[in-house]
Amino acid sequence: xxxxxxxxxxxxxxxxxxxxxxxxxxxxxxxxxxxxxxxxxxxxxxxxxxxxxxxxxxxxxxxxxxxxxxxxxxxxxxxxxxxxxxxxxxxxxxxxxxxxxxxxxxxxxxxxxxxxxxxxxxxxxxxxxxxxxxxxxxxxxxxxxxxxxxxxxxxxxxxxxxxxxxxxxxxxxxxxxxxxxxxxxxxxxxxxxxxxxxxxxxxxxxxxxxxxxxxxxxxxxxxxxxxxxxxxxxxxxxxxxxxxx
Amino acid sequence: xxxxxxxxxxxxxxxxxxxxxxxxxxxxxxxxxxxxxxxxxxxxxxxxxxxxxxxxxxxxxxxxxxxxxxxxxxxxxxxxxxxxxxxxxxxxxxxxxxxxxxxxxxxxxxxxxxxxxxxxxxxxxxxxxxxxxxxxxxxxxxxxxxxxxxxxxxxxxxxxxxxxxxxxxxxxxxxxxxxxxxxxxxxxxxxxxxxxxxxxxxxxxxxxxxxxxxxxxxxxxxxxxxxxxxxxxxxxxxxxxxxxx
Lengths: 245, 245
Description:
Two copies of one chain form a homodimer.
Chain A: E1 2-9, H1 26-38, E2 43-46, E3 55-64, H2 76-81, E4 88-96, E5 108-116, E6 130-131, H3 138-145, E7 150-153, E8 168-179, E9 182-189, H4 196-208, H5 214-223, E10 238-244
Parallel strand pairs in A: 3-10, 5-6
Antiparallel strand pairs in A: 1-3, 1-4, 2-3, 5-9, 5-10, 7-8, 8-9
């Protein structure tokens, strides 16, 4: 039996999604919760690996056992939440076919990156944003972001040391907007390389601050050299906001 | 010299505004920060006493010394923030006349109370809202809230044991709206009794859940008996959002 769970989590207290030997992870906490509820091991597969500190407004994972869960699907969210800390919430659960894959069946994912652009910081966005006190231009950043749209080789926008060899991804939307003092980068694609959104964000900020130009982004995309792209924005401003199967 | 500071703070880690012997408070932290910066004691006076756990999106206080601060007004926010935890932020500072009083000169204050009305909880609102999983009607609550508007005796909406004797306050706005899964009560007045907004909120929730009627609110206002009003909503959903001098 395979159940698809919709989750939200605040990444602040987690070493990302994936189970680690040392450090609390979201997957690890879910596995523990299911073990406590079902009295047996349950295989939990996520839609994406998120880094330490990254948040998810919408995240999907499957939970799978050889038998049944022993608890009706509709009651799973509250049952699992009772075994989790309050910074993770299972929002809904439904049965899916055995051949459904939480990760490989994803068509598009959307991320948002929140920059607190106030001169002084917003305490409500502490650990939930990147505080950049120098005034940014959302217009300049939005225009620059358009260069990411299309099927491109994002090798320069991947953390150095990553072993992925196919670095082509299709980005369908990339935009920057302002909401009060916050500047928000939103990007949708069929897949993302390691640290890709964070490097895109860091690069767009550098463009707005005059340290890089749109030409530099174009040449980074062309040559695939990580050094040509901008800095990696911190994890804490990044949110997975939507996953489409 | 008297400086008016605009602050924001997340109340989660504070025993409210006012200095206490035991427990970290916002006023206490500000006094410490000023002592560290100016090398002398500075008198800090707030616009309002907020309870333990209550948040402020906008809060004003004055800082006062017999002499000068030794640091220009425009540089105070960043200087003070450097001596505070990140859940408090001084947003701006300006000099005010000696006879300005942060508390007595307040004309109106506006509070918002955030209820997380999702069946499952929103982890991003943990310690920042009251989770009420039963479906609430913002329409019913909004209509009921109108009874609070006007100059009335709010004795029934004051924590029992409070020593205040003049319990008449003027409420100029009281409304309830829905934003997605959140139900938000907003109230503006010339003053508020101890726990008044939290008791108003608890009462409105009970009206929506059919445990109280608008008639009950009317009779609570008439007789001034705390027992006739509803429960006290938890502190963590309450935000001071605007202060007008």
